[in-house]
Amino acid sequence: MTDDVLQPEAAGDDLAFEGALRPASLAEFVGQQKVRGQLELLLNAATLQNRAPDHILLAGPPGLGKTTLAMIVAHEGNRPLRMTSGPAIQHAGDLAAVLSSLVPGEVLFIDEIHRMARSAEEMLYLAMEDFRVDIMVGKGAGATSIPLELAPFTLVGATTRAGLLPNPLRDRFGFTAHLEFYETDELHRVLERAAALIGLAIGSDALTEIAGRSRGTPRIANRLLRRVRDYALVHGGAADHSAVRAALELYDVDEHGLDRLDRAVLSAIVERFGGGPVGLSTLAVTVGEEAETIEAVVEPFLVRTGLVTRSPRGRIATARAWTHLGLSPQAGPQPGLIDDL
Ligand SMILES: Nc1ncnc2c1ncn2[C@@H]1O[C@H](COP(=O)(O)OP(=O)(O)OP(=O)(O)O)[C@@H](O)[C@H]1O
Ligand SMILES: [Mg+2]
Fold first, then answer.
1. Where does the chain bind Mg(2+) (predicted)?
2. What radius of gyration, in Å, describes the C-alpha atoms of the chain?
3. Is 66 tagged catalytic?
4. Which residue, 124, 261, 316, 322, is the most exposed by fewest CB within 10 angstroms?
């Protein structure tokens, strides 16, 4: 249960809760100012020209608002939305079925697009470019391909691993939005909005404390807010600063928002590998987590907070990381010494 609170991925009763808190328009969408401006221009231009907006790729760690933005793209243009995901597209035929049933102007959202089958990817190239697919009929020498015209649509792809997308696919998006972790004041606004929506009376200092510990991630901020509400409810007190501290301590979120896995990775680099460099797969095995999770979820946050840097030879802990763990950086990168710590 503790883990659910800390995971940036959606879990358990998040889904219903998230639905209720999801901003429905760009104006309500907090932060990501640059991406918001870029999207606004792209959508407005399409409206003025009375055509479907260009295909959009949304890249970034979990919980930063990719699904939310895809829904906004549809909502802002008053377009129908079809949602599917990479893992659901195991064959080119699965994709052909979806594409051929789209209505003109529809927004097709493919979540985790990097996990789509290769054969479907190739079909998608043509569909994105020419709004056409070639359906193969028959096998071997007698096989023929029948072209099928598609209604013009807008593809919105989301991925936590933009690096895994083949170049031809990446190049066919008219716009790629790289979502960044949120600043504390932006998360404060996300929380203010969420508190109002769930009818929770909570002070600004309490919200700042939650915002600072939310790993730069709106999904985590909203989830911690819920835990604070629970805490206040169960203890019959106000959702104030001390309730926040007590609730977050209970759930093992430290003052910089590092969660259990972040800390495990950090101390593995520092204590087991003398500060690094250490390769991704070695690190993953050491902390008992999937390499993909470390790369897509943990590492971006540790890099962004300046605790870890990447080098061609692997991940390296910075001086800040040593200090964060209460160690002296000078004892530094000499593996022999570190073993004795
Ligand atoms: N900019 C924002 N302003 C307000 N709330 C936000 C914002 N971004 C995200 N949220 C909140 O965080 C929740 C999670 O966002 P969302 O589901 O869009 O993330 P995601 O990037 O699709 O994550 P995943 O990669 O796990 O699918 C939303 O339900 C919404 O409540
Ligand atoms: Mg999503």
1. 67
2. 23
3. yes
4. 316
Q: Is 160 a catalytic residue?
A: yes
Domain-terminating residue out of 178, 200, 217: 178
Question: CATH number of the domain that 111 lies in?
Answer: 3.40.50.300
* 63 labeled binding residue: yes
- The 10s digit of each residue's pLDDT in 142-155 is 888 889 999 999 99
Characterize 188-200 residue by residue with b for buried, 16 or more Cβ atoms within 10 angstroms of its Cβ, and e for exposed.
bbbbbebbeeeeb
Helix-strand-coil split of the chain, %, nearest 5: 55, 15, 35
C-beta pairs of 270-274 under 8 Å, 24+ apart in sequence: 270/317, 270/321, 270/322, 270/325, 270/327, 270/338, 271/325, 271/338, 271/341, 272/338, 273/335, 273/338, 274/332, 274/333, 274/334, 274/335, 274/336, 274/337, 274/338
Across the range 228-250, mean pLDDT stands at 89
Q: Is 219 assigned a catalytic role?
A: yes
Which ligand sits closest to the CA of 188?
1
Please choose from 14, 67, 184, 217 the residue to mutate so as to test ligand 1's pocket, defined by most ligand atoms within 8 A of CB: 67
For 246-260, write each residue's pLDDT tens digit: 988 888 888 888 988
Q: What is the pLDDT of residue 18?
A: 77
Nearest residue to 153 via CA among 176, 129, 183: 129
* For residues 28-35, average pLDDT: 94
> For ligand 1, which residues put their CB under 6 angstroms from it?
9-10, 18, 21-23, 29-32, 62-68, 160, 190, 218-219, 222
Which amino acid residue places its CA nearest to atom 16 of ligand 1? 65
For residues 173 and 91, membership in a common domain is answered with yes
Contact status, residue 318 vs residue 311, Cβ threshold 8 Å: no
Any domain includes 321: yes
Residue 34 has pLDDT above 50, yes or no: yes
Q: What is the mean pLDDT of residues 17-31?
A: 89
How many domains does one find in the chain?
3
**Pocket-testing residue among 7, 34, 64, 85, ligand 1, by greatest number of atoms within 8 A of Cβ:** 64
Protein residues within 5 Å, CB atom, of ion ligand 2: 66-67
